[in-house]
C-alpha cells in the first residue's frame, strides 16, 4: 500500500470530495491550496468514505499558459484567476499593455490596452507578486514612446520573463523596434509579437532579416498573419482566418524551420484555426515544429470550460492532434519551461 504525505492526502481528499459533489473538473487538482482544503475540511471523512484510488489524482501534467491578460475585455482579476484554474493551468505569463497614448503607433488611442482593455505593467506585476505560485509576467511599452526602453528595463530588472505582447502599428524593422530587440538580447528574454497585416507589426515578409540580425534573441510569433502564413498558398494577406487545406511551406513554416530563434505562440482564435482547418496538416506541423511551439490561451471568457472557452479548445486540439504524448507535453509545458526558464 502506498504511503502519501499529509499534503498529498489533502489534495487527494479535497479533490475527491469536490469532484464527487460536481463542483469542479478534476484538472483543477493542481490549483487547490491548503487554505481551500481547510475551508472544506468538514468534507474530509466523507472523502475517505468514497474509497477512491489515490493514484488517479497524482498524475502530474502541468500546463504553462504563455499568453494571458489582466482586465481582458472587462473581465475581473478574480474571474481571470478562476478561468486559469478551470483550464488546469499551473503557470500563467501575464502579458501587459503599453501606456495609453494618442500616437500613430496606437492608432491614436484605438489600440491602447492592446485593443482589449488589457492592464499594463504595474497591474500585471502586482498581481503576479500576489500569486507567485501560479503567475509571472512580461514587460511592454509603446515602442516609439521616448521612455520605452527605461520602462521595459525597469520590469526586466524586477524579473519579467518576456517583452510583449508587442501589438503596435510600427514597422517590424524600425529603429524603435531594433532598440527593443537589443534590450531583449541584453537581458536574455524572448520577444512576443502580434502579427496582423496592415494593423500591427508591419513587414512580416521582411522579418527574416531581423531573425538574422539578432540570432541570440528568441522571437515568438502570434496572431492572424503569423498563423495564416503556415500555408504556402496564402497569397491574400487581407484574409486573416483562412479555411481549407494547408500546403506546407508558407512564410511561417519556413521561419520556424530555418531559424533557431523563431517560435510560435498557439494562442487565440488564429492559433486554434491553424490546427482545426486541416487536421492532417496539423499533425505533421506539430511533429515538424514540436520544439518550437508554445501553448497560450489569450482567452477572454469567464468560465474556462466548454465551447465558449477558446483557451480550453486549444488545449483539446493539442491533445487530439499531437502525434505522440511526448509532443503534447512539449507543447503544453516543456517548451515554455525551457524558453522562459521557469
TrEMBL record:
Keyword Hydrolase: yes
Transmembrane segments: 36-59
Keywords: Hydrolase, Membrane, Transmembrane, Transmembrane helix
Source superkingdom: Bacteria
Keyword Transmembrane applies: yes
Coiled-coil boundaries: none
Domain Amidohydrolase-related: 64-342
Pfam families named in the record: Amidohydro_2
MF terms in GO: hydrolase activity
Protein name per the record: Predicted metal-dependent hydrolase, TIM-barrel fold
Species of origin: Daejeonella lutea
Amino acid at each position: 500500500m502506498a504511503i502519501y504525505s499529509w499534503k498529498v492526502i489533502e489534495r487527494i481528499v479535497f479533490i475527491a470530495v469536490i469532484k464527487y459533489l460536481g463542483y469542479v473538473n478534476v484538472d483543477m487538482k493542481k490549483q487547490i491550496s491548503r487554505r481551500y482544503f481547510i475551508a472544506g475540511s468538514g468534507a474530509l471523512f466523507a472523502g475517505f468514505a468514497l474509497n477512491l484510488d489515490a493514484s488517479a489524482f497524482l498524475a502530474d501534467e502541468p500546463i504553462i499558459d504563455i499568453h494571458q491578460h489582466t482586465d481582458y475585455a472587462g473581465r475581473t482579476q478574480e474571474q481571470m484567476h478562476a478561468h486559469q484554474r478551470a483550464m488546469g493551468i499551473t503557470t500563467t505569463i501575464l502579458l501587459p499593455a503599453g501606456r495609453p497614448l494618442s500616437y500613430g503607433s496606437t492608432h491614436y488611442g484605438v489600440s491602447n490596452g492592446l485593443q482589449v482593455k488589457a492592464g499594463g505593467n504595474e497591474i500585471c506585476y502586482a498581481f503576479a507578486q500576489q500569486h507567485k505560485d501560479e503567475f509571472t509576467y512580461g514587460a511592454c511599452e509603446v515602442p516609439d514612446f521616448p521612455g520605452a526602453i527605461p520602462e521595459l528595463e525597469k520590469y526586466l530588472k524586477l524579473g519579467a520573463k518576456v517583452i510583449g505582447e508587442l501589438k503596435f502599428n510600427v514597422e517590424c524593422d524600425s529603429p524603435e523596434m531594433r532598440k527593443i530587440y537589443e534590450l531583449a538580447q541584453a537581458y536574455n528574454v524572448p520577444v512576443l509579437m502580434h502579427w496582423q497585416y496592415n494593423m500591427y507589426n508591419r513587414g512580416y515578409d521582411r522579418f527574416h532579416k531581423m531573425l538574422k540580425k539578432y540570432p541570440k534573441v528568441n522571437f515568438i510569433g502570434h496572431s492572424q498573419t503569423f498563423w495564416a502564413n503556415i500555408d504556402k498558398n496564402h497569397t491574400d494577406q487581407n484574409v486573416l482566418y483562412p479555411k481549407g487545406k494547408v500546403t506546407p511551406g508558407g512564410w511561417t513554416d519556413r521561419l520556424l524551420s530555418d531559424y533557431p530563434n523563431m517560435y510560435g505562440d498557439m494562442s487565440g482564435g488564429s492559433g486554434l484555426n491553424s490546427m482545426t482547418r486541416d487536421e492532417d496538416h496539423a499533425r505533421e506541423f506539430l511533429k515538424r515544429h514540436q520544439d518550437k511551439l508554445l501553448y497560450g490561451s489569450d482567452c477572454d471568457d469567464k468560465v474556462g470550460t466548454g465551447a465558449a472557452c477558446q483557451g480550453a479548445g486549444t488545449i483539446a486540439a493539442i491533445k487530439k492532434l499531437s502525434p505522440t504524448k511526448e509532443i503534447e507535453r512539449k507543447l503544453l509545458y516543456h517548451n515554455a519551461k525551457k524558453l522562459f526558464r521557469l
